[in-house]
## 1
Amino acid sequence: MSDDLKTPLLDELEKGPWPSFVKDLKSMAGKSAMVKDLLGQLEKSYRDKRGYWKHGGLVGVMGYGGGVIGRYSALPEEFPGVSHFHTVRVNQPSGWFYTSEAMREIVDIWDEHGSGLTNMHGSTGDMVLLGTVTDELEPTFRALTEKGWDLGGSGSDLRTPSCCVGPARCENACYDTLALTYNLTHNYQDELHRPMFNYKYKIKMSGCPNDCTAAIARSDMGIIGIWKDDIQVDQAAVAEYVDSGLNIQEFVVEKCPTGCISLEGKEIKIDNSECVKCMHCINVMPKALSPGKERGAAITLGAKAPIVEGALFGSVMIPFMKLETEEDFEEMHDLIERIWEFWDEYGTNRERIGEFIERVGLATFLEGVGLDPIPQMVKQPRDNPYIFYEEYFEEGEN
Amino acid sequence: MSDDLKTPLLDELEKGPWPSFVKDLKSMAGKSAMVKDLLGQLEKSYRDKRGYWKHGGLVGVMGYGGGVIGRYSALPEEFPGVSHFHTVRVNQPSGWFYTSEAMREIVDIWDEHGSGLTNMHGSTGDMVLLGTVTDELEPTFRALTEKGWDLGGSGSDLRTPSCCVGPARCENACYDTLALTYNLTHNYQDELHRPMFNYKYKIKMSGCPNDCTAAIARSDMGIIGIWKDDIQVDQAAVAEYVDSGLNIQEFVVEKCPTGCISLEGKEIKIDNSECVKCMHCINVMPKALSPGKERGAAITLGAKAPIVEGALFGSVMIPFMKLETEEDFEEMHDLIERIWEFWDEYGTNRERIGEFIERVGLATFLEGVGLDPIPQMVKQPRDNPYIFYEEYFEEGEN
Amino acid sequence: MATETQRRTDIGPPHYEKFLHPIIKENYGKWKYHETLKPGVLVHYGETGSIYTVRAASPRLISTNFIRMVTDLADKYSEGYFRFTSRNNVEFLLGNKDNIEPLIKELGDNGVPVGGTNNAISNVVHTQGWVHCHSSATDASGLVKVVMDELFEYFGSMKLPHKLRIAVACCLNMCGAVHASDIAILGVHRTPPRIDNETLPNLCEIPTTVASCPNNAIRPTSVEGRTTVKVDEDKCMYCGNCYTVCPAMPLADPLNDGVSIWVGGKISNARTEPMFTKLAIPYIPNNPPRWPEVTDAVRNIVELYAKNAKPYERLGEWINRIGWPKFFDLTGIEFTKYHIDDFRYAGTTYRRSLHNRY
Amino acid sequence: MATETQRRTDIGPPHYEKFLHPIIKENYGKWKYHETLKPGVLVHYGETGSIYTVRAASPRLISTNFIRMVTDLADKYSEGYFRFTSRNNVEFLLGNKDNIEPLIKELGDNGVPVGGTNNAISNVVHTQGWVHCHSSATDASGLVKVVMDELFEYFGSMKLPHKLRIAVACCLNMCGAVHASDIAILGVHRTPPRIDNETLPNLCEIPTTVASCPNNAIRPTSVEGRTTVKVDEDKCMYCGNCYTVCPAMPLADPLNDGVSIWVGGKISNARTEPMFTKLAIPYIPNNPPRWPEVTDAVRNIVELYAKNAKPYERLGEWINRIGWPKFFDLTGIEFTKYHIDDFRYAGTTYRRSLHNRY
Ligand code: SRM
Ligand code: SRM
Ligand code: SRM
Ligand code: SRM
Ligand code: SF4
Ligand code: SF4
Ligand code: SF4
Ligand code: SF4
Ligand code: SF4
Ligand code: SF4
Ligand code: SF4
Ligand code: SF4
């Protein structure tokens, strides 16, 4: 295309108060031919109302099967800068915490080896370095690893685990989401980098049922903080909220899903046996209420987007497990491996764990991974009479 | 079997305060050989823990396909009295109202032509005359019709419609359930007596959402009374309830599923735009509250027992229709016939209407019977993105 | 003699009007409200008068003797007017208040109790069982008798938190209201049909039989030249649909037939939407004549409900409030893999949230 | 030069500890509670001190220039410490309260607003779109930009009844959080894949391709001797799963691609269980660069929610209270047959009770 870049349609996206990615990209267009042609091709997409990318090809770095998404332009002659435009997924640190120093090292590398464009972050949690050519993949990887960074997952492997800010900056954290994320990510480097599963396996960790990483909706395995005992109440702080004018009756008591809170004067009472740990009351009065002392996490399995059997929320496999000691972490490894083994043996190609569980049935799955059925795993017992009885009386007995 | 009847096991069922069918049957055993052998065979069933009936054969009365359930003993030599033991289903009057005079005519007929045993009534609603021989079927039928009685349904036909006591003895009735039952039963005599459907079609009519005939659970077509406007409130009577010590706050206000009631002093306020017509408040305070003035019925389709696709509750096809005038009744006939036609044409053998609707999809069914989709027909819009778009833009348009 | 007269068909049932008490005719559709004077006795206030209802129990499987007793009492106390309810009780409709007590007394003398109104256990909706049906896995009338004997106190009183509706059905066809009752007792077969290869070829249409199986467990086969069918036993969940269309495939099995117990269903729209009954106890062997294990199990559930539920809470509403884990704790019923749904909509029954009780 | 040193693999990400602000390290796991000082500014009180969070918007698709700007501000105001959120905002973590205002000011000078906390519309979770993905039916970054321009006032304020979460995904793969958001914008293809019989035989595995279709719409066939596949167009609902496994079956169709609007999903367990997003508007044609029909539709819904919902009601909770009929009335959105579910669990979405609003 001609040297001076004309993007009348995209220019419309420079207007308005929300930060403009077009402005930002244009600021790079001078430095980077890739960005310039990306803008060119994008302008064309806006005009023609269609994308111009070819189906991703298999590219990557030596010895890894995942971490890179291959991408080629459908119009390489017109936009040579993006004829290759691969994505490098870099495994973020737990909780997406950075220092400016560390972050600068990454952007320096990316300015040298890639387009200089990124997503901070991808929906799974990785730093997404957006756009480079095949030849630069290995050098990018080397530069990153030298600074102590590694790639994230892609394809049918363990996807990059991610977690909420948790104990680092949240009073609700019921377990150390950052520590477990670090532990699992390092413990399963091989599964993360070398796809050998039936399909992707995502792990998201939220410190409490507010689920700030959307674990129950977007991760094959959700590890979501919860407590078992009574909500901790600071009645003095409750009184403060009353005095400050908070309408506890209307906004807390009446909003409790099980109606197990009552307000007497400036004191609240909670029938914890009926509390379903929804977090609402704690959310409204963080200064007065906090999760109980016996803390841990619930494990959910099977969340996913709709392709192809319909979207699923994760379903509870373990309503509560402690996650404090090394032993607890090892129990978690053991559980994860039992799940992978069974899925690996009986799951089919491109069958997510959630679809697998629905196909074989929850009861069968539990037997397969060695868990006992308990009522917390279901909303309700079956309402149909089609029971496959397995024990019979034979003539002679009974 | 030997002449004197020994029933040690059944005798155990003469004990206890609940009226004993065994006592009652024994009181007939003298008069009726059928009853005697029935007791004999039943005693054997109790001992052996199994039934001794053969699969029902096709018997009936001239010109009818339904109304009789054939039944033969598997042990005719041992119990000749029940070698034939057919059931005659007699169509009950609307609301199961009788006079002693009319009822005596029926029992006289049955003592003459049958075993003298009955079910008052069968689950579908018929008087069930239990046990006679093939040769007595026609005479029984003649005797019944002479006294103005006719048979009910069985097999793949319209089953005997039934209804709640409704306006005859209930302040909640939102339409005349007895009149409509009479009207439909007489209007569809042919469909009732001569099976020509894919499968059975049951109609139950309840005068209000309390649904005292279980229409939403046990009828292919439920016609359930409801109102459209505001609940009628007699505040004076509300005050009486308050004075009488009824805790309206706890038992009415807090039990309203949409929380749309509030109590101010001795007055209640209802936000009728959010009322879902559940009946609870009216049930608790019948003297003070009653359904609105704009009354009619909702039509539900598809309820059934689990065989074979799983039990179904009826689903709302028409949220509200008036049922007062002749024209209203004719509109109902028209609707019923459109439904039968479409089901007849596209349904399969032994496919209940509820299973049929699930198979072809509600939207398709609505088109088939000529109803427009409205949000009242669903709990919620689809949550999956698998939409079969039917309108496309072709090159040149747009 | 009947045979001499002209044969009439399609005349339909008589018009209900001639069976209505004069007071009912006058106030038809004009009832103001009702009160429950005592268990089993209702009064409905109309514009021109009141009608008194006395609700009497009935075993439903009744002889003409029983019915004649009812008609005689109706003549004596309710001007000859009475009706049956949708749960098979008898309702005498009295114009004269003073007849209530004498009627109740004489019913008592005939062994017929009065009750079933409001917060009571009313009559049990049930089915045929060994008395008349070829398909039954248990008896119905007997189960009803022993269960109502056990729970008798709740029929004549109104001391429960709310209505409690019990149903019995003798096989999965569920001719009763089993799939939507507070407590349901369901007869179950637990072994696949036994195929009678002798009679099957003559009695049954092979394609219909094969098609009847929801789980495609039935395949055509040939035995000694005859085409018959065989059942893949691993796929069979004993629904009996094949037997319904093919008499040569009986499921009855005295050793393994029995009953299952279900809880928490409701039909009315009051407060909560209608709910299906859910599995509580997968299997109790048949133990006639009085099924003690069944009556114990039912009483246990009823008493926990009576003790723990709040006013106006139906059994299922109570369970939803306390949660299923607590229900299993309280009742001491074991939660097993059989309780976990594996049918069509199984996925919708998994716990897909953090809402849980510990 | 990188190439001279020893190659390292499987080292995993660096330990998070070295990125934690000293105050955070000290109070790690010991936070007492938090307050929102103003939109976009939080303080968390620990045992030994407080950490101040300033949440700044980010387009997520950002260049190294943007990132350098962030790092420079972090050095200047937050001791070099910052993080990103699960919705892709930047959070500066300040030890010194006095730096809050200057930081906000300088962010403003760089065109970066602060907000997204509490009852606000936070950043939009989104995907690649025409910027990078072969599968997209629309662009993502552009849609996010125009929608957030339109709703800007709600990012920097906290005047909504509660949090409102918006997501964008450019195809049914839904790489964003579309299936569980208060409002979701989903790119849709609406015509079956066009098969390139030239390249298909070489590019695609026929069995895998056939198996990829949830509706069995794909059948093997042969064209001019080559084995390829054909699509039964009546069975196709344009999910794109075949294209994912077979590049020779593109779905892109400029005339018919576009977006659909979904509402009422949520993830948190607060009060109500997580809910899926439900269909509001089946189709709006792509109208870049600013998709005015889409921004209007979204604003309409947001404003009705702002006006009618009660405090602490999420969008879906509000709709459940007023009922879907009223939602369609209020928004003026037409209810069509497309809104009626016809997928796996369709039967569970029918209205199976009398509970209804008129
Ligand atoms: C980059 C990213 C979107 C983004 O802009 O952030 C992404 C991009 C792609 N996703 Fe995704 N997915 C991304 C997060 C998700 C999520 C959200 C999440 O992980 O929380 C989902 C929904 C949750 C889930 O996993 O179900 C998601 C569900 C899918 C699916 C559907 C999978 C399914 O079983 O439903 C596909 C199709 C597939 O796997 O073949 C898919 C496939 C793809 C592909 C590889 C396209 C394809 O068909 O091969 C996209 C590459 C785009 C490109 O050219 O860069 N992507 N994908 C996200 C990963 C970045 C990261 O590593 O951090
Ligand atoms: C007599 C009665 C039970 C009773 O004791 O009251 C009855 C008895 C039979 N029912 Fe029923 N059903 C009776 C009401 C019901 C009900 C309840 C209702 O109508 O409210 C249901 C559940 C609701 C429904 O229709 O789904 C019911 C669902 C079935 C089914 C399962 C149908 C299904 O689609 O799920 C079958 C099997 C079949 O149709 O082949 C069935 C089949 C049968 C058969 C004919 C047995 C058979 O497989 O052929 C039974 C004859 C027993 C006998 O020897 O007398 N019966 N049947 C009821 C009819 C009396 C009457 O006319 O008033
Ligand atoms: C007579 C009968 C109708 C008939 O035509 O036969 C009837 C009559 C009345 N019902 Fe009913 N119901 C009758 C079967 C039903 C059924 C059907 C069933 O049980 O199979 C139901 C649905 C049950 C369920 O939900 O599972 C039913 C659910 C109700 C309700 C809702 C209760 C609730 O809150 O869930 C009420 C309102 C109430 O009781 O407060 C009600 C209220 C009433 C009232 C008070 C209506 C009125 O104002 O007269 C009547 C006297 C009630 C009483 O028994 O105390 N009736 N009622 C039926 C008596 C059956 C029996 O002999 O016990
Ligand atoms: C920073 C972040 C976690 C992280 O590791 O990045 C976070 C942080 C907090 N969340 Fe969250 N949430 C974060 C994403 C989420 C998500 C995930 C998402 O949006 O994709 C959810 C689930 C959303 C949903 O339900 O659809 C989420 C649902 C909540 C809730 C539940 C709200 C509700 O009632 O439904 C609370 C409690 C509240 O807001 O009262 C909450 C509360 C909080 C608190 C107040 C917790 C605390 O005590 O510190 C934190 C500040 C909240 C705020 O923004 O005002 N956080 N929070 C995420 C910020 C995203 C952003 O940039 O806006
Ligand atoms: S999920 Fe819970 S612990 Fe984690 S950030 Fe959200 S509120 Fe805090
Ligand atoms: S956490 Fe939820 S359920 Fe528990 S008491 Fe608080 S509001 Fe009620
Ligand atoms: S359904 Fe309604 S109208 Fe009919 S008897 Fe019951 S309460 Fe009365
Ligand atoms: S009928 Fe039900 S929903 Fe309506 S106001 Fe009364 S209790 Fe509430
Ligand atoms: S439930 Fe089964 S066994 Fe009982 S009557 Fe109905 S069909 Fe016969
Ligand atoms: S009993 Fe039911 S599942 Fe078993 S073979 Fe017969 S039809 Fe099939
Ligand atoms: S949603 Fe679809 S188009 Fe968008 S990034 Fe994901 S796969 Fe690509
Ligand atoms: S788009 Fe989906 S439905 Fe259509 S052919 Fe491809 S896989 Fe099948």
Note: Chain D touches chain C through ten residues (CB under 8 Å).
## 2
Amino acid sequence: MTVKVQREDFDIGAELDSLTEGRHGVGGLASFVGLVRDIHGGAEVSAMTLEHYPGMTERELERIATEAKERWPLDEVLIVHRYGRLEPGDRIVLCAASSAHRHAALEACAFLIDWLKTKAPFWKLEATGGADKWVDARESDDEAAKRWRETSG
Amino acid sequence: MTVKVQREDFDIGAELDSLTEGRHGVGGLASFVGLVRDIHGGAEVSAMTLEHYPGMTERELERIATEAKERWPLDEVLIVHRYGRLEPGDRIVLCAASSAHRHAALEACAFLIDWLKTKAPFWKLEATGGADKWVDARESDDEAAKRWRETSG
Amino acid sequence: MKVLYFAWLRERVGMAEETVTPPEDVATVADLIEHLKTRSPAHAEALGDTRVVRCAVDQEHAQPGDSVRGASEVAFFPPVTGG
Amino acid sequence: MKVLYFAWLRERVGMAEETVTPPEDVATVADLIEHLKTRSPAHAEALGDTRVVRCAVDQEHAQPGDSVRGASEVAFFPPVTGG
């Protein structure tokens, strides 16, 4: 299991090769690369800055990688996540899972990226048309409202 | 859409980068790499030779790539498939799909590799313990029996 | 007409490719198989079990009843075993 | 106790980190928020809408009723927006 949180870009080929090199029981390797899009919510995005919580981010990513290994018969799990300033077309995240069985690898990879894209401890500051704006997490707001209400009653 | 059927190995990083380079509307890139396992059906495999039907293979792969683009809102689809002699740990196939939406990319990638691993026009000759043996396609045999029976009656 | 054989069908027939001019009454894939079986004992053996013989006419998958008239390339092969 | 702020909470409070020694009666995350709000108008404004404030105690997600006693690091941040 490998988890990296880094400012630098990553080399997809080198990262993926490291998962399978010398391992002859691996039938398949599923991976997903997330990239910065130039459009978000209809507005043009010129850049984005990802802030995170150093230390806690790594712990949370290791936790979800461990959960994937518990749910599926995986050989290896890899997560590489960038932070800092990123521009459209830049790579943000790579997640990958290898297994003797292709469906295990594919499902684990989908599970990882769904979690990473919605629940990983990152905050997005988007530059749209000159102005910098923190991206809202709308659905979580509603859930949160309920959560805080329950304990304040 | 890119389809390659080749004897040589491929460079995962270079192939995947070519799908997203300079395209800023792509949010995600899902991919799968299939590798030769050293075990098949309980027997140790020392090597495998993939035979194919040059010309028809490319047409069939282009057809399934086109079908994926019709089913999901994809930006690009890539299939690279090797033939010839391969050893455990060698890469056999790479398929990838890119899209503005991660679920489209993930589902299309799973669709492609399921088709490639079961229905692509390749025949496997496995070397197990000194002997070379053509791999059977059991399920298809039964279907086939029915098919030929229907027309011979 | 060019006839191609792949995988163990190629090995059993003993060749990868041959050129045949089938008689006038060969209309379908099934007819062509019966004709090819008369060419040699190896052909008869290789093409004997039609449950495990697949066919493509001009690089399109074909059924036993499909026409081979005017085809330039007919291929026979076992069920595919995938990549 | 070290208190950390992230994203727009950091901007509104006007600092990324501060060291606080809360009074004895601060037992929970909710208590700590009330205490921090007394430190400055910026704190009061930033931490005012608890619907959009999340907390971690010693790098573990925490609920408003969870204890902060003995904690060495408490962080406040908006709901995550993913990678």
Note: The helical segments of chain C are 7-13, 29-37, 41-46.
